[in-house]
Design goal:
By secondary structure, this protein is α+β, with helices and mostly antiparallel strands. It has four helices and three strands; from the N terminus they run E-H-E-H-E-H-H. The chain has a domain of about 90 residues: Double Stranded RNA Binding Domain, CATH 3.30.160.20. The longest helix is centred in the middle third of the chain and has 20 residues. The termini are far apart.
Length: about 140
């Protein structure tokens, strides 16, 4: 299946079913299956273990015990719009999972010269401010 938004999604791991949905729509919701339930088999996805763990952190309640990501879209009254929304949400989740976490920052110490320069600047600034003060004995 290729709807334009699912370029990231592989079709072998993807399955979309339509089920009855509640909500707005009146009698139409009792007759038509408009809720899109997207199943994405993570075992067939080809994602690395690191990417799978990031995906599990992003959407823990949407992953079943069989390692299948399930996304349900029922906001719209038509199958096409719900399918597009489900695929867009899957694509967004996968894009976030594919981004590696930033490298942790290693703490470093300033060089001896940098410490000396900072202290010299502080002394110079302090002397400049001290020159502004009123000299004792000149007060009137």
């Amino acid at each position: 299946m290729n709807t334009g938004n699912d370029k990231v999604v592989e079709s072998a791991a993807l399955e979309i079913k339509f089920i009855h949905a509640g909500g707005p729509g009146g009698q139409n919701v009792n007759k038509v299956s408009t809720c899109a339930q997207l199943s994405y088999d993570l075992n067939k996805s080809g994602l690395s273990p690191g990417q799978l763990s990031r995906l599990a952190i992003l959407a823990p309640s949407q992953i079943s015990r069989q390692n299948v990501l399930i996304i349900t879209a029922r906001n719209h009254r038509s199958q096409a719009l719900n399918r597009t929304e489900a695929v867009a949400r899957l694509t967004e989740l996968l894009k976030k999972a594919l981004v590696p976490p930033p490298r942790p920052r290693r703490a470093t110490r300033p060089t001896r010269r940098a410490v000396e320069r900072r202290l010299e600047d502080k002394k110079r600034r302090g002397a400049h401010k001290a020159a502004r003060r009123v000299v004792r004995g000149d007060e009137e």
